[in-house]
Amino acid sequence: MKGKVYTMKFLGRRMIVVAVMMALMLSAVSAAISQVKAFAFSAGSVIAELSTDLPRYNPGQSVTITAKLTNSTGGSLSNATVTLYYKHLEQDVGTEAKTFSLGSGATGTLTFSWQPPSTDYQGYLIEAWVRDSSGNILDNLNTAADVSSSWTKFPRYGYLSVFNSQSSAASSDTIQKLAKYHINALQFYDWHWKHHVPLSGTVSNPSTTWNDVANRTIFKQTLIDYISFAHSSNMSAMAYNLLYGAFDGYDTDGSGAQPSWGIYTDTNHSTQWGFPLPGGWATSQIHFMNPANTSWQNYIINRQKDVFSAFSFDGWHVDQIGEFPGTSKYDYNGNPINQSSGFASLLNNAKSQMPDKTIIFNNVNTYGYADTANANVDLMYTELWDDRDLSNIKDFLDTQTSLSGKASVFPLYMNYNYQDQFQDSSPGYFNTPAVLLADAGIFAMGAQHLELGDNLNMLDHEYFPNKHLIMSDELKKKLLAQYDFAVAYENLLRDGLANTSNRVELPGIASSTRSDADKVWTFTKSGKGYEVIQMINQLGINDTAVRDKNAVKPAPTPQTNVTVKYYYSNGPVGQVNYASPDYDNGKTYQLPFTAGSDGNGNYVQFTVPTLQYWDIIYITPKPNLLVNGGFESGDLTGWTEWHPSGQAAAYGIDGSDVHEGDKKLYFWNVNAYEQSVHQIKTGLSGGSYTVMAWLKATAYGSQPSAARLEVNGAYTNFTVDGTWREYTANVTVSGGQIDVGFYVNSPGSTSIQIDDVKLVKN
Predict the structure, then answer these.
(1) N or C: which end of the chain has fewer CB within 10 A?
(2) In this protein, which residues make up the domain named CBM-cenC (predicted)?
(3) What is the pTM of this model?
């Protein structure tokens, strides 16, 4: 048994009353399990808040964890302890404990420092457990830490859109509020002066204040403070601007911008295409320039360089207005233009001239995404407008990811129609169930929802300063749990796992592989040694449109003791793990399971304690007892090869046509050859074992006289048909040893490819 295993009974939304856990006793070199203890505690009775100091850590950087304590137990605490357990998925990677005493109703703070492993791009769950002096558990809470050298691998993008005159303390407070949600980059929205002249003043002496497009006053010192505090919190600061906008009078204001660079709605350049703005704004409309025009490209890129010289922004968040179907567009000379290809051209030019700056582009309602995917941008940012359901969004995400290989951020504005009923001065509240369900689905599919910014506000409109709706305290708390969860499990959610079509059954519960009404949406992925099941609960929900424009979506109908039957592809299964942001702060629990097979294949069946919005089940196979079974070392480490004396070796290891991973072993010679490799595993306990291997055998001439898997002298012949097939052999060990090998005797031109060789104890 590895680490802590919990078995808990769920008795309500606010109280976790009965639980059983394995307590860890630490020796100088390792953790060992000591005893099973029954405990009862009230959630929130001691730990008021648990947080890390930064939303992202560079490899090698230490993590500071702060536990704010309030003793609400009803009695004094003397020599109590807070123990932190640091976990990467199901694996324990460290622990630390501190002792404290606290009177009834008193408050205190404990600070911990942890040095995580130096591995780049890893998420960690940090569990805090409070015990009294007798070892009884009083409380627990979680937070998370992301160790990543770049924010664009696992983006958690936020925004700032208000730059009023304020104290540096107020600016710092805003940044810290967002840091607690692990926001690792900020879009500075409408911070600039004019779209075609974003910097007011000069590079050496920017203006103290200026008006933005809406004629709001922007204060330079607030902008500088925000950038500085963002950087001190390892947040990237992105300068927003259109890629093709210009104000009224751009051709006469001395900026140097030219009408010949524009986009026109007619062939004789009499009407420049533009976007009208409300009365009282700084310009009557935004006049659009041709993004493919190299003179415009170099002009606006140079204006962005001025921005970067004056302010320490980390990159350019590039925006567009979107496409208006049915309206043809022309350049100054009357030639039809393709905006999308022009976008890519400008973005590539910008990156080539500013290679050290992050470049992000908004593909409004997916317009231009295919060209952007192939452009030199650092992640995909796609503003979604249609009434899509979650599986529609996942379909688009999968397509976009296959084209770009980059992370995706989706701005979509919740309760969009409902917000019209309110004003900033008298706001309404977001519909909590709709937001939690949308974020659960978007995080689960492997993307991020851009939504949080300013003074911990949430977006309800494409004009970011709009604050007609605010979050309730309940939504803030539950959303924090989701963001903690998304960081802790980022390697399962957004680290390149591949979609699978493995069958999932929920006996007695309506489910679907699409996000259908009144069903549980399930989908599966695999990679990095895991098979993953995502379960999104839409039971009791008839309208599956994600944005819930009218703020009427109910909470899904919660389920308890959900039976899951899963047909696995990478077995035999060794461990079934369950976690949910809705259950006990997102901790991982090992679930007991039964294994079997039927007409649909091999399966495991288990029960998850609860499904509210979102559950993850991640499954690991039994450990492979062979060394280098996938030949990922690039050589025959662990294996011994044989070929006849006088014949050249007929094997190699390469990365072509692998079954899984990066490498495979192959046998090949155009001439007649014999070749084998073997691995002998000793010191095995008695019992039943299974050998599994994936092979692809192809004869380009005569069939080989022998092509087989060899296990302790028993043979399993290969099918020589050019198809990857899995071969298995069962063996009973009584002498403590298994000999696993592959042998071919070929008249020539026989190709044998071998990958994913495993030996597991049954």
Answers:
(1) N
(2) 624-749
(3) 0.88
